[in-house]
Amino acid sequence: MAQEDVDKIFYNYSNNEALVEENRFLKETIENMQKELQRYKSTPLIACEVKELHGEQVLVRLPNGNEFLVEKSPECKDINAGEYALAEQKNLTLIKKIPSNKRFDVEKFVIIEKPKISWNKIGGLKQQEQEIKEVIELPLKNPKLFEKIGIDPPKGILLHGPPGTGKTILAKAVAASTHSTFIEVVGSELVQKFIGEGAKLVKEIFELAREKAPSIIFIDELDAIGATRVDIGTSGEREVQRTFMQLLSEIDGFSPLGNVKIIGCTNRKDILDTAITRPGRLDRLIEVPLPNEEAIKEIFKIHTAKMSLGKIDMTLLVEKMKELSGAEIKSIVTEAGYFAIRDKRNKIKEKDFLKAIEKVKQEEEDESYKKIFG
Ligand SMILES: Nc1ncnc2c1ncn2[C@@H]1O[C@H](COP(=O)(O)OP(=O)(O)OP(=O)(O)O)[C@@H](O)[C@H]1O
Ligand SMILES: [Mg+2]
């Protein structure tokens, strides 16, 4: 056999090896992806309480109050009455015990931070800042003053207004100025992440806030749990209702002069249940509107502070940014920066901002079109 042929065989052989290896790798990747897909498709488990043991079967109570006699998996073979377990949604077989000392780690469900944002990073909103300082900052920093004068400060406030207007940064700024722990909870997640556990989670969030005091509990999308309900027929609705009730009772249960404050947030004040804004609860409503011309200028200055700007006609830009939110102004500034980078410049020109404004406005239009027509 000629050397050439031998080389060819060796080449094919080693090439074949490589193909086999690649084939194995691809198969493994597909398997992993299928597993991952399966995981996403699987339905959430229901947390339920074990009421009585009946031989191999167990009587459990679901969060909606209904009781069922169900089977248990080997993992739950030594479960006792009074303990909690996770059950499959379809036939309610108990899959896994929930350790009784801590049924879940509440810290995994919320964001806890010590924000550093300062008031001067917020454009416009001076009146809102003043009010928040009075009702949140002052009582946290100087509760004695309130005792002396004999008035109760609000336990919390409700920030409401369109998206992207600075509600979250206002709440973070007051957490920063009072050196408080900022505990962020999202209303919709409270009831979706762990079926049946919303109310318990609320209780534990307040416990956590007391542990980490001074703290501010920031509840975003409050309307997701606190909307007026016409029909509370379904178990999902009852679950939301129970979570909301728990929130109200936690608010009622703590002292206005304590070092935990609540800031609720919503874009939909119109649908909010008025129970949450009754006296003694989140009874200070603070509107955070879209910026006026002066505020647009300030927000623009804040976000361009570190940029090197060419000559720009501010009046023209402000005119073009009317009706936009702080968040949109921020993305205009970022986009303008990108236009300059693409042009290999480090000075940002007026035309970059004009192009960026068009782009952000177009994106907003596309978004609203999608919302209406799908
Ligand atoms: N008044 C403002 N001054 C400076 N920056 C602002 C202002 N408003 C919004 N921004 C910018 O937009 C970003 C988003 O704002 P923020 O998250 O506070 O809006 P929001 O009102 O909480 O919106 P949503 O209702 O969508 O939660 C902020 O991080 C900030 O960079
Ligand atoms: Mg927000």
Q: What order do the strands of the largest sheet run in, or round the barrel if closed?
A: 6-8-9-10-7-11
Bound chemical compounds: adenosine-5'-triphosphate, magnesium ion
Instruction: Please identify which CATH superfamily of the largest domain we are dealing with.
Output: P-loop containing nucleotide triphosphate hydrolases
> The biggest beta sheet, please?
6 strands, mixed
- Poorly predicted parts: none
Integer average pLDDT: 88
SSE string, helix = H, strand = E?
A: HEEEEEEHHEHEHHEHHEEHHHH
Query: Which CATH architecture of the largest domain is right?
Result: 3-Layer(aba) Sandwich
- As a percent range, the share of helical residues equals 40-55%
Which descriptors apply to this entry?
single chain; 374 residues; alpha/beta; OB fold (Dihydrolipoamide Acetyltransferase, E2P); Rossmann fold; 4 domains; 6-stranded mixed sheet; 5-stranded antiparallel sheet; 12 helices; 11 strands; flat; binds adenosine-5'-triphosphate; binds magnesium ion
Describe the model:
This protein has four domains: 1-42; 46-98, Beta Barrel (OB fold (Dihydrolipoamide Acetyltransferase, E2P)); 106-287, Rossmann fold, CATH 3.40.50.300; 293-373, Helicase, Ruva Protein, domain 3, CATH 1.10.8. By secondary structure, it is an alpha/beta fold. It is 47% helix and 16% strand. The chain is flat. The strands form two sheets. Strands 6-8-9-10-7-11 form a six-stranded mixed sheet, sandwiched between helices. A five-stranded antiparallel sheet has the order 3-2-1-4-5, with no helix packed on it. The mean pLDDT is 88. Bound molecules: adenosine-5'-triphosphate (ATP) and magnesium ion. Magnesium ion binds at residues 167-168, 220, 265.
